[in-house]
Amino acid sequence: MKTRKLSFLLALSMGASLVAAGCSSSDSGSGNDGDKVVLDYWHTYGEQEEKVLVEEIKPAFEEEHPDIELKLTRMPQEGLKQQVIAGVAGNAAPDIMRMDIVWVSEFAEMGALTEMGEMDGFEEVKETLFEAPMSTNFYDGGYYGLPLNTNTKIAIYNKEVLESVGYDEAPATMEELEDASRKAVEAGAEGGISIAGVGQTWDYLPYFWSLGGSLSNEDYTKFDGYLNSEESVKALETIVGWNEEGLISPIMLGGEPGTWEGIEKGQYMMVDDGPWFFSILMNEKDKQNPLDYTTWAPIPEGDGGSRSVIGGENLVIFENSDKKDAAWEFTKWMTEEEAQKIMGIGTGLIPTNRTAAQDPEFLELPFIEQYVKQLETALPRTPIPQWSEVEGEITLNFEKVLRGEMDPKEALDDAAAKADQILNQ
Amino acid sequence: MKNRSDLFWKIVVYAILIFGVLIFIFPFIYMILTTFLTSAYSLPRPEEVFTARPNLENYKEVWMEYEFYRYFLNSLLVAGVAMVGSLLLGSMSAYAFARFEFPFKELIFRAYLFTMMIPLVLAIVPQFTVINNLGLVNTYAGLWLIYIGGGVVGSTFFLRGFFETIPKDLEESILIDGGGKWRIFWNIYLPLSKPALGTMAIFAFSGTWDEYFVALTIIKDEAMRTLPIALMMFQGQHASNWALVFAASLIAIIPVIIIYIIFQKKFVQSGHSEGAVKG
Q1: Residue numbers of the domain that contains A402
Q2: pLDDT for A240
Q3: What is the mean pLDDT of residues A118-133?
Q4: Residue of B nearest to A1 (CA)
Q5: N or C: which end of chain B has fewer CB within 10 A?
Q6: Based on the structure, what is the number of domains in chain B?
Q7: Cβ burial, residue A292 (10 Å; 0-12/13-18/19+)
Q8: CA proximity to B206, closest of B162, B147, B127, B138
């Protein structure tokens, strides 16, 4: 009896599997809808942002281009790079993708992306976009994408803590920042300057650069003599000094609280973050409005000026797409004023289109002005295909220095030598 | 006197065990309590967590608004079929390896084992290329091919050893009644291996239920995605709402717990064949 029950169950589930397999394979055939060109678009927008994309951008574009249909797929961040690599290798990449600016040269080197210089109207489009984000698409003499949105980080202070140490305005220089942090920590704050971590250059570059440090020469061909220059060593030593004095928040080396919590509760005096700090927290019910308890300003000036780091995403077209013309139409359209304004106003993502970034309605977002201002002096991370490998070396040594296991000069010499070696392979 | 010291040691042992349970279960309880908060972009502090009022709002939001029911059913179908498939094929090939003689048997078995040693990430591009050439990208059939193909190896390895402990003499009773190899497999080996099959079922189910990377590579349609992918979508680029992440995670582990409860009775039992044959 029992065995019969078991075999019945097995047979049932095998049957179910066959039916399901039949269903799913018939579903997959839906590619072209009449004469329409269907563009497969992978993106990693957040939830709020995806809403704007689906409800405003897609209808607007499809109305203007009735022959093109957008197929939007939101991809998770986790393991995304391997996904794209598998897609490229298996000839199943999407037509278009919104990808992190630091990936473009790496995929361009792989031969996965379409060079856009030859596309119809490229030069005119390029003129309308900001130079620094545009430069992140450059690889080996050509442009492999268009900048879609840009961002950077500014300094955000807990207003009350800052005022309690005698600063009515945000510190303008690194000396003032140091002084304010010292006073805040002496008065009981758990941290002054919150470098959010040491796991990626994005976390600490604003301080390293503003204090006078540099990564490579201007052509991005040499790290030795720049990453380990006297100024770079001095910059790192200053950060180490802050850490030893207890001015840097525990979050840097993995402690608690996190930056957002620390700033909200007044445990930290200052954090640095992108515009999403405001746009996400302002949309939270039952939470204090971050505009009420913070003051924000560009990264304080040091020997290197006020240098933040540029982030953002570019739109790229994959080389094995067979709909390049339509894909270019969409890519171009996304960087035009209208689409850039919709995205900017709807999400707080900073437009790369010069006119859209100056749009009064966009600038009305209370926090945006300082970000746009910071972008004038912000720097991109070295746009080379080997960047993620180089970043790994630099970051490893940075962490060793901050954990007291390595001397700053020795660490930077070592990282510069390894970086040059990776570059010249 | 003796009873007293027995009792004393019993209390000590139980105290240690209860203490251990508390330590292990604490993060889990913390996680459950976090799901009662409305928004938690930074991980909440203990005082917030322990004053949270139990409610199911986050679960409702995850289930309905984020369409978790759909991913849940997708996953159930994917993991269920993969479990049955890899168990069935695995037990049949284990039977063959345990009881049949054929050329290159050990060599083939080693080749089987060898595939277990290749890390998934290395194999993903060739696997994807094969699935793509078969035209099975974006179908569950493609996913099952990889899952069952991978699962069969593990269950073959595990079950072969188990089958070899079953006395051959038992087969004779079937042979006398005129049954063949299939009968032997179906009426002797499978029923006697329930503990091993139960264990493999747990592994096979939870292995594919949690699987993220292959599923994301093969399935391109958002509507066909499985639970682990949907779970990952809660992790934002810049910040994650932990209350929702935890609510979603809890929903995702319920079936694993159920499967475990169903099969755990079999988990530690040894075979049923002891004493079946007179020495």
Answers
A1: 154-309+386-423
A2: 96
A3: 92
A4: B187
A5: C
A6: 2
A7: exposed
A8: B147
